[in-house]
Design brief:
Helices cover about 25% and strands about 25% of the residues. The protein has a seven-stranded mixed β-sheet, with helices on both faces. Strands 5-4-3-6-9 form a five-stranded antiparallel β-sheet, with no helix packed on it. It has a five-stranded mixed β-sheet with strand order 11-14-17-18-19. It is elongated. The chain has 20 helices and 36 strands. It has six domains: about 60 residues, Phenylalanyl-tRNA Synthetase, Chain B, domain 1, CATH 3.30.56; about 120 residues, Beta Barrel (OB fold (Dihydrolipoamide Acetyltransferase, E2P)); about 200 residues, 3-Layer(bba) Sandwich (Phenylalanyl-tRNA Synthetase, Chain B, domain 3); about 50 residues, 2-Layer Sandwich (Phenylalanyl-tRNA Synthetase, Chain B, domain 1); about 210 residues, BirA Bifunctional Protein, domain 2 (2-Layer Sandwich), CATH 3.30.930.10; about 55 residues, Dodecin subunit-like (2-Layer Sandwich). By secondary structure, it is an alpha+beta fold.
């Protein structure tokens, strides 16, 4: 999303430097990915009046004499069909850069040219596409004489000397109100501790009582407003407008007066609009008047969209129908059968709210990522559908008059009320904000506050769909006043116990890093193709309903497949050897669901080691890593032949892999270590020397916890020397029986020359 700083300043009194404003927006509202500097994009482009326009015989060219506000006229040759005497136009002066070429490697600098070998042409009179203010190249832009005079800079008249903020959409997913300039400006005002006031003019058009709108399910469409507009005059855009410039700076090109009005209001309010050709609409439905039905699509239904692409609808898609005949994919794109064109006489103006969950699926299935669906998938609230449609009708009144206003709103939303005390707010934030400051901060962004002495009754504004509980209100106070302004203090209560899971991961991270391995972090979501590559059954994976990508439709069962993908990328680098690991959650359908009906999750550690050349077998390399790791964690294990029925075993070669089981509980499987199957290596295009392991971290944590319960205290170390004629292995077995919970390490074996008995020394470590 792009935000024009000049447009923002029309709604907020900004008294701080631009760089400080950008910093505050990034710290307290949304991530600013970048700032596009357009302060010099329109340098040396002037508004001029065409004083003379003479056609050059046998050409399409016109010889123009233009007035740039100076005493002498300037000659320019122009090929536009609409150039005429008396009009105001945009003149790119010789030496200036053509704005449309600014981002090119070699921007085009206009100069003084000799046309047809005899006509001097100084600079050029520019079309909208050359000014980067539209896609029209049929003629030069015309300026309204009421807005400017010859000699004015184009940038000054249309506020084109601007900074454009590039906003990271994902960090605003929970804030649909901020996808419109009004909502964004309100937040900026709150950040700057300024009261925000916006005159939301109500046109107060009277609604009809007829029921020409039918919503089949209020869960897919909470409100549908529509206005019928009848043509009563010409709505032909003649002049370049300030709104055209706003659209262009926001990344949208002007198209025609109707579409431009809907797009402008979407950028202003966040509420998408759509216009149907009224006469085409009723023709499709074979009715005398429109019958609008909002419903789920039927399996196999087809619809040709505005981009001429025919889509096969799914039962999840929401469609707008004319008497049950689909004419639009709701919230995504209109249909070709009811599109606006140059012959359109009457309009149905739609303003509605659709289920964000359905539209997220629609977006992914059909690959539609329009500005409208981007806003709908954030959960646009229904409060402003009708007022925005009325505003649009007002903008189009030169060519259309209102003949009907319809509004179907089955279940109006109730206001959210939160009761909270200043003590609760300060206690959670660690602040000492006064009640008056808290009230002012929240009122600045539209909250209504009733001071009940003992507590504050806070009524969330209708556009704040993310406010539900006390913590939401506390977060608002902390965010608007700045988390960076909260002074860090030590807690007054006793320090909490360490999280055993975090501690285990910390130890593993330190040990594997010490062994030379690098930690990576990969997506928990994987593709069906990845599961197939390693031989895992996709039916044992939970499928994601609203996947973020068609390639990431399943939750992974195992860590190792994700690491193999990264191994391929690392093997392309000029490194002789490397080892990577990841600790994360895994899920399998076989594990079922917990008491809250949430899939059971487990913590796992995956590890892969690769080398270009090595004298050591890959299996033993991986075994050495896991053996040393578990030994340092004081977990005694043994390695047994691989049971290929285990899900973890699927990527591994059975004859060069082993199960890792607890030494004192052989039935308990810790994990699997080994080399990977040739088929797996070939699928990932990996080198032969490759091995790895995956182990169950939850099991390790449980084992360590049991040991700590049995042996809570200070770690003890003692040395034991045994004089015996038995072998070392027999002696070690006897010592292990005597000290079952201890870690036993050999120190030395000494046998005097000529004697049968020997001294075997051990170090015994226990709690």
């Amino acid at each position: 999303m792009k935000i024009s700083l000049n447009w923002l300043k029309k709604y907020v009194d900004i008294k701080i430097p631009n760089d400080e404003l950008v910093r505050l927006i990034g710290a307290r509202l949304v991530e600013v990915e970048g700032v596009i500097d357009e302060t010099h994009k329109y340098d040396n482009i002037y508004i001029v009046r065409v004083e003379k326009a003479e056609k050059i015989p046998e050409t399409h060219l016109t010889l123009c004499q233009i007035n740039d506000g100076e005493s002498e006229l300037i000659q320019v040759v122009c090929g536009a069909p609409n150039v005429r005497e008396g009009m105001l136009a945009a003149w790119i002066k010789p030496g200036a850069i053509v704005p449309a070429s600014v981002k090119e490697d070699a921007p085009f600098v206009i100069g003084k040219r000799k046309m047809l070998g005899k006509y001097d042409s100084n600079g050029m009179l520019a079309a909208a596409d050359e000014l980067d203010l539209g896609e029209d190249h049929d003629g030069i832009v015309e300026i309204d004489p009421k807005m400017a005079k010859p000699g004015d800079l184009l940038a000054n008249v249309f506020e084109l000397n601007d900074l454009i903020l590039e906003i990271e959409n994902k960090s605003l997913t929970h804030r649909p109100d901020c996808f419109g300039m009004i909502g964004f400006a309100r937040e900026v005002a709150g950040i700057l501790n300024e009261k925000f006031e916006y005159n939301d003019e109500k046109n107060e058009l009277s609604k009809n009582d007829d029921k020409r709108i039918e919503i089949k399910d209020e869960n897919i469409c909470s409100r549908y407003s529509a206005i019928i507009l009848e043509k009563h005059g010409e709505l032909k855009k003649k002049y370049l407008t300030w709104e055209d410039c706003v659209l262009s700076k926001s990344g949208m090109k002007p198209i025609n007066p109707i579409v431009d009005a809907t797009n402008y209001l979407m950028l202003l309010t966040g509420q998408p609009l759509h216009a149907f050709d009224y006469d085409k609409f009723i023709k499709v439905g074979k009715t005398d008047e429109p019958k609008i039905i909002v419903r789920l699509a039927k399996k196999g239904e087809k619809l040709t969209l505005l981009d001429e692409k025919e889509v096969v609808l799914t039962e999840n898609d929401i469609v707008i129908t004319s008497n049950d005949v689909p004419v639009a994919l709701a919230g995504a794109m209109g249909g070709e059968s009811t599109m606006i064109d140059e012959n359109t006489k009457n309009i149905i103006l739609e303003s509605a709210t659709f289920s964000l969950y359905n539209l997220r699926k629609t977006q992914m299935v059909h690959g539609i990522f329009s500005e409208a669906i981007t806003r709908f998938t954030k959960g646009q609230p229904p409060y402003q559908t009708l007022v925005v449609a009325e505003t649009c009708a007002k903008m189009l009144e030169e060519g259309f008059k209102v003949s009907a206003v319809m509004d179907e709103y089955p279940k109006p939303e109730k206001e959210t009320v939160v009761k909270i005390t200043t003590t609760e707010i300060n206690a959670l934030l660690g602040t000492d904000y006064s009640k008056s400051l808290i009230v002012k901060t929240l009122e600045n962004v539209g909250f209504l506050i009733n001071d009940q002495n003992e507590y504050l009754e806070i009524i969330a504004p209708v556009w704040r769909t993310d406010i539900h509980i006390k913590e939401d209100v506390i977060e608002e106070v902390g965010r608007l006043l700045g988390y960076d302004n909260i002074k860090p203090t030590l807690p007054m209560h006793a320090t909490a116990e360490k999280n055993a899971n975090f501690e285990l991961k910390r130890e593993i991270r330190e040990l594997l890093s010490k062994f030379g391995a690098n930690e990576v972090l990969t997506y928990s979501f994987v593709s069906e193709k990845l599961l197939e590559k390693v031989g895992l059954n996709k039916n044992n994976s939970h499928k994601i309903v609203n996947s973020i990508s068609p390639e990431l439709q399943y939750v992974r069962q195992s860590i190792v497949p994700s690491l193999l993908e990264k191994t391929y990328l690392n093997e392309k680098l000029p490194v002789e050897k490397f080892a990577i690991f990841e600790m994360n959650k895994v899920y399998q359908k076989d594990w079922g669901f917990d008491s809250e009906k949430v899939p059971v999750e487990k913590n796992a550690l995956g590890f892969v080691v690769a080398e270009r050349k090595s004298k050591e077998t890959a299996f033993y390399k991986a075994k050495k890593y896991v053996e040393k790791l578990l030994e340092d964690l004081n977990i005694m294990v043994e390695f047994l032949p691989l049971n290929n029925n285990e899900a973890l075993a699927k990527p591994f070669e059975p004859k060069r892999a082993a199960e890792i089981r607890l030494k004192d509980e052989p039935k308990v499987l810790v994990g699997v270590v080994g080399e990977f199957k040739n088929s797996v290596r070939n699928e990932f295009k990996l080198a032969p020397y490759l091995a790895g392991f995956e182990i169950d971290l939850d099991l390790l944590l449980e084992k360590r916890s049991r040991k700590k319960e049995l042996k809570f205290g200070i770690k003890k170390s003692e040395d034991l020397t045994v004089t015996t004629t038995k072998t070392y292995a027999e002696t070690l077995t006897e010592v292990e029986k005597k000290y079952p919970e201890a870690k036993i390490s050999p120190l030395s074996v000494y046998q005097p020359e000529g004697q049968e008995a020997k001294n075997i020394s051990f170090r015994i470590e226990s709690f």
